[in-house]
Fold this protein.
Amino acid sequence: MTACARNDALRLLRAINMDQAHGSVGATVFAFDAGRTAGLQPGTERYDEALWHLLWEGALTVNECILPEVAAAMPFGRAPYKLAPKAILMLEQG
């Protein structure tokens, strides 16, 4: 993972937290909505890499209320996610 992708991921996570989660672990969040706030255009390679980084690190998890078949049919990054405890650690370590 490049330094740029890590920085983009942290910026995306900050935007998600500021606009949607407000530090609430388990909150349902939409990374797609926060992408523009973070200066990342959803659907671009930089946005996708930032979101993959958050998923890989465990900062975001799949929202279990969404059926896997439904989530799989959505474009990458448009399904709802849940803010995980790891997200708070990443924000604190920033």
Summary: The chain has a mean pLDDT of 92. Strands lie at 28-29, 60-62, 81-83. Residues 3-93 form a domain with the Arc Repressor Mutant, subunit A fold (CATH 1.10.10).
